[in-house]
Design a protein that fits this description.
The chain is α/β, with parallel strands linked by helices. Helices cover about 30% and strands about 15% of the residues. The protein has a domain at about 1-30 and about 55-240: Leucine-rich repeat, LRR (right-handed beta-alpha superhelix). α10 (about 220-225) links the parallel β6 and β7. α12 (about 295-305) packs parallel to α13 (about 320-325). It is globular, with a radius of gyration of 26 Å. Mean pLDDT is about 85; it is low at about 1-10, about 10-40 and about 450-460.
Length: about 450
């Protein structure tokens, strides 16, 4: 009797009123045993059977890789988990794919993950090396939330980690938590600063290149603590509560960022931007703002980084916004998420423009986009986020213009898909629009390394 054991990462664990899910999947290969009765039965005549034909593992792996993302760019966990139960060979391949992207929400999930990737075993070392992206939720308001120390211990067990997505939530006094309270109230919840031992342990881990930090607490200094850990960052996404500088004498953030996205209800001060992007002058290529910036802030970015910016993503574009973007001579991608786009934007575009993305409703000024499609020789793709824009009288003309030029026309009503198309994976890519793919994950894994090569971190 053969038995194969397959641990699948717990990627969605719920607490409270929701169901709590933990997954330990075991597959068995059971051979029939011989009973006393069968031993006295005359043997059956020997009949030749054709050998079992197995699909080559290379083909199986190719199919798994092609099905890794679904049509909305979510990982198809159900398919990969099903594949892991077929046989021992399939299980190993599927588990490595499953562990490329890990989400930890509770303390029990974090401890289970640490056990699964413990490098003391060969299987644990393989799975730990497979992790490229990690999402962690530190919620001080949850009784079973992940502790800072457990998060750091899980982090150091992933030597090839490229991107960390960390969400921080503050706590509220018992009985004062209101379900469905607005973001403005949730961001006032206090959260402690990161402990020095936690920061020291994080510094012993992988030198990540991409960080997404969502701060839903009133601790406005936590971001500066995290940024001090990773001088290797090239891509940064900040959201939630606007950060502040803990001290005017703090030396500028040392990283030369390639990509910066932000989503704040109230934007940080220009002093913070100067501190954060001081060493990014000459390196910043991609800028994204989910909320409409003031003209003062937009002009700051254009004045300071306009000569190197290749991609700008904004929620809306007015005439003043368009005039400001015209001062970015190297723009290769422009994205305006909502159907509020000034026609002036496309009347004077960069000669290097490769990708136009915009929201479309019945009232969008579409003629200027069609003219850009017809005349912009460098253009390669057009992306449309439909806000009822399929009823626009010029929409068929846009489709015909793209077909005539041989341009890729991507259309979606799904805002998540639109944003994924815009952002892609946080690695430098040669053309626009950027992509999100498993091959990019492999490239991200190849670029990852420890701060201190060969260092061993013991958790026992």
């Amino acid at each position: 009797m053969g038995m194969g054991f397959a641990f699948l990462p717990t990627l969605n664990i719920f607490t409270g009123a929701q169901q709590r899910v933990l997954e330990h999947d075991i597959s068995f290969d059971i051979a029939p045993s011989k009973s006393p009765r069968s031993s006295r039965t005359a043997p059956a005549p020997c009949m030749s059977r054709p050998p079992k034909s197995r699909m080559p593992l290379e083909i199986v792996l190719t199919i798994m890789e092609m099905a890794f993302y679904d049509e909305t760019f979510d990982i198809d966990y159900s398919l990969l988990k099903a594949c892991s139960l077929v046989c021992r060979e399939w299980s190993a391949a599927a588990q490595k794919l499953l562990f490329h992207n890990v989400t930890l929400r509770t303390q029990s999930a974090c401890l289970s993950f640490q056990s699964a990737v413990d490098p003391i075993t060969e299987q644990g070392r393989i799975l730990g090396e497979a992790v490229v992206r990690m999402r962690v939720i530190l919620d001080h308001n949850q009784p079973f939330g992940i502790t800072e120390q457990s998060f750091a211990q899980a982090f150091v067990l992933c030597p090839n980690l490229f991107e960390l997505n960390l969400a921080l939530y503050g706590s509220v006094s018992p009985g004062r938590d209101i379900i469905g309270s607005p973001d403005s109230l949730r961001m006032r919840r206090p959260a402690p600063s990161f402990d020095e031992s936690t920061l020291s342990l994080l510094q012993c881990g992988p030198a990540i290149s991409a960080l997404q930090f969502s701060n839903w607490s009133e601790n406005s200094h936590s971001v500066s603590q995290l940024l001090s850990v990773w001088p290797s960052l090239k891509s940064l996404v900040l959201s939630g509560n606007a950060p502040e500088l803990p001290s005017d004498e703090l030396p500028p953030f040392p990283c030369a960022l390639h990509e910066f996205h932000m989503n704040f209800q109230a934007f940080p001060s220009l002093d913070f931007m100067d501190w954060l992007l001081h060493h990014s002058i000459g390196s910043l290529r991609v800028l994204g703002m989910a909320q409409e910036p003031s003209m003062q802030l937009l002009d700051y970015f254009v004045d300071t980084h306009g000569n190197t910016l290749e991609s700008v993503s904004l929620p809306v574009c007015w005439q003043d916004t368009a005039r400001s973007l015209h001062r970015c001579p190297r723009l290769r991608q422009i994205s305006v998420e909502r159907p509020l786009v000034s026609p002036l934007l496309f009347k004077k575009v960069s000669e290097r423009l490769e990708h136009i993305a915009f929201g479309l409703n019945k009232m969008t000024a579409l003629q200027s986009v069609i003219e850009a499609v017809k005349t912009q020789k460098s253009l390669k793709a057009v992306t449309v986020h439909l806000w009822g824009g399929e009823q626009h009288p010029l929409f068929p003309s846009l489709q015909m213009a793209c077909a005539y030029r041989g341009l890729e026309l991507r259309i979606t009503p799904n805002i998540r898909v639109f944003r994924t198309w815009m952002r892609g994976d946080p690695i430098e890519q040669q053309t626009y629009p950027r992509g999100k793919s498993l091959s990019n994950l492999y490239a991200m894994r190849a670029q990852s390394s420890f701060h201190a090569p060969g260092a061993h971190v013991s958790l026992h």
